[in-house]
Amino acid sequence: QSVLTQAPSASGTPGQRVTISCSGGSSNIGRNTVNWYQQLPGAAPELLIYNNNQRPSGVPDRFSGSKSGTSASLAISGLQSEDEADYYCATWDDNLNGYVVFGGGTKVTVL
Amino acid sequence: QVQLQESGPGLVKPSETLSLTCAVSSYSISSGFFWGCIRQPPGRGLEWIGSMSQSGRSYYNPSLKSRVTISVDTPKNQFSLKLSSVTAADAAVYYCVRHRIAAGGSPYDAFDIWGQGTMVTVSS
Question: Are B18 and B83 in contact (CB under 8 A)?
Fold first, then answer.
């Protein structure tokens, strides 16, 4: 059972906008910034979004992040076939002296 | 570019200690950042194990803390994970990561560099 809650799956057709949600609580998302990681099939995860809405160099601007209260979202605009992957949210949780927590992951399928 | 490379035995016996080494290239560990490990059981999600800085400051996942030791070897520019008393539940792909601390002081900003991962099986 993950501390952060994500829907297990999401899907869309090429060109569509897909949104993935990440729900937490006051000790984690409510107090700290959120990251998103993309894991392509058979590969290691890569940082996709940091500090709620910042993209590392090289990440396409069709990926965007936002945070409100104890929830965060990742939006993929203009969905492409190469976006088919697992997406994980993560943040710091202030309980138990503090630790990093992940969501369970959302598999995005491009139909 | 900065690269992390995991190495270690792919098979560990139950009750024994899992040892993993992460070699860092194109960046000096002594220059900063924290260095950590994350695991992913087959078909499942990510679990952070812990992280340590070159100065010895560390953070660990509370659920694993009693069994985990992470150490940093600055002369060899590598860091290591030891996980004791392993069981089948510890079988996973283990990733080495660079752990970035937030500018404002929060202990976590992002894992911005990842190794390719190494599969560890637990079996007698």
Answer: yes
Total residues found in chain B within this entry? 124
User: For B110, which of A35, A103, A105 is closest by C-beta distance?
Assistant: A35
Instruction: Work out whether the CA dihedral B22, B24, B30, B31 comes out positive or negative.
Output: negative
- pLDDT of A45: 98
The mean pLDDT of A34-56, rounded to a whole number, is 97
- The single-letter DSSP state of residue A4 is B
Q: Mind giving me the DSSP string for A18-73? A: EEEEEE--TTTTTTS--EEEEE-TTS--EEEEBTTTBPPTT--TTEEEEEETTEEE
Beta bridge partners of B35: B52, B98
Distance between CA atoms of residues B103 and B110, nearest Å:
11
Neighbour tally for A53: CB within 10 Å: 16
Beta bridge partners of B66: none
Q: By the CB < 8 Å criterion, does A32 face chain B?
A: yes
Of the candidates A13, A61, A63, A68, the one whose C-alpha atom is nearest the C-alpha of residue A37 is A63
* Chain B interface, best mutation among A32, A100, A107, by max B CB count within 10 A: A100
pLDDT tens-digit profile of B33-68?
999 999 999 999 999 999 999 888 999 999 999 999
Report the residue from A51, A102, A104 with minimal CB separation from B109: A51
